[in-house]
Specification:
This protein has about 350 residues and is mainly beta. The protein is about 5% helix and about 50% strand. Strand 27 (about 300-310) and strand 28 form a beta hairpin.
Length: about 350
């Protein structure tokens, strides 16, 4: 993985795309396409689906046992045609945004601060959680297939914001080719160079495509209409062990140890220690936030996120999963920003250790 941290929104080309002069709060301008939850260039087909927001296409629009809480613009309607033209302009401009950080195709188990993230080819994620760490005024842009080809594929893939919000106004997904989501919980506006297919799951955002958009058994809600996600009670977590770095198949090692738990004032407390023995990065920090972000069918905690500070200019976010005893399949991932160095290490199986969730 090659990683480079750059100042966001530094190019003239991106400045032309922005609706505000503030780089921290800037977002791509979608024009009249902003009003659409689903917009397909050639067709839109909804089957057993529920859409909150407008639906339309310059081509055919077909609804079968589906509900749309918004306006359905029929084939060739001038509003849909104008929105599609605005989408094409936004797609081109977003494609010209320079990359800030390069990621591998698997986006599971990563905690990402605001930025422009690029995958050079296809991105395929099966299971796992991508956490966006920031506020509703920050902007995340993901570009898939920056070398010219590449599709976005997610199966049982969950995208969450660390503050619990579900609004999509500040999360954008540009794909060179298609986007396919299956049984996923997703946040953001997808601008696809080919078709978008969503089967099952919940999509908080927009599905905008050059080709057809097909929804089957899916719920799509445009920003501003969603209810907050269920907030599961925080639990105490403890653990320690080692993980391979820099990649899950590497022979290099990083060691970690932590204890994190909610406090009586509604916050969190604890300590976190991490040493990457390949790069020499050493983090020793305190815990100030903890949240259960995924549960098993019996509502017991499956995935926990905790975060904190590791100095005046250093912050970290950790995602852990407890898969029971003896701990040989427990998982750990960490993102470190600032301080003596930055690191994005995806969630991976630990060795010589154990992670425990305490009721």
């Amino acid at each position: 993985m090659k990683i480079k941290y750059l100042t966001l929104l530094a190019s003239v080309g991106f400045a032309a795309l922005l609706g505000t002069a503030s780089t921290a709060n800037a977002q791509p301008v979608l024009g009249s396409a902003q009003r659409f939850a689903v917009l397909g260039g050639t067709a839109v087909t909804l089957t057993s689906s529920h859409v909150i927001g407008n639906v339309g296409s310059p081509g055919e629009v077909t609804l079968t046992t589906s509900t749309v809480d918004g306006t359905v613009y029929p084939a060739g309607d001038s509003v849909a045609v104008a929105a599609y033209a605005d989408f094409l302009s936004a797609y081109t401009a977003l494609g010209n945004v320079p990359c800030g950080t390069y990621l591998t195709g698997n986006l599971a188990g990563v905690v990402l601060p605001p930025g422009v993230y690029c995958v050079e080819a296809a991105s395929t994620t099966t299971g796992g959680v991508l956490t966006l760490a920031g506020s509703s005024t920050d902007t995340w842009i993901f570009k898939i297939g920056t070398l010219g080809t590449g599709a976005l594929t997610g199966t049982n893939f969950t995208v969450v914001m660390s503050n619990g919000e579900t609004c999509d106004n500040n999360v954008f997904w540009w794909t060179a080719e298609a986007a396919t989501l299956t049984d996923s919980t997703f946040i953001g506006s997808i601008l696809a160079g080919a078709a978008i297919t969503v089967t099952g799951g919940n999509f908080h955002g927009q599905a905008l495509a050059k080709a057809a958009v097909t929804l089957t058994g899916a719920d799509v809600e445009i920003c501003g209409t969603s209810t907050p996600p269920t907030q599961y009670p925080a639990v105490k977590v403890t653990g320690g062990g080692q993980i391979p770095v820099p990649d899950p198949v590497s022979t290099g090692q990083a060691t970690f140890g932590f204890n994190a738990q909610p406090d009586k004032k509604g916050g969190a407390k604890g300590n976190f220690n991490y040493v990457n023995h390949v790069t020499g990065l050493h983090v020793d920090g305190t815990v100030n936030y903890i949240q259960v972000i995924a549960v098993y069918p019996d509502l017991s905690a499956k995935t926990v996120l905790f975060s904190g500070t590791c100095g005046d200019t250093c912050s970290y976010t950790v995602i852990v999963e407890d898969h029971g005893e003896p701990g040989t399949s427990d998982e750990f991932g960490v993102t470190i920003i600032g301080g003596s160095g930055s690191e994005v290490t995806s969630q991976r199986v630990i060795s010589k250790g154990n992670i425990q969730f305490h009721k």
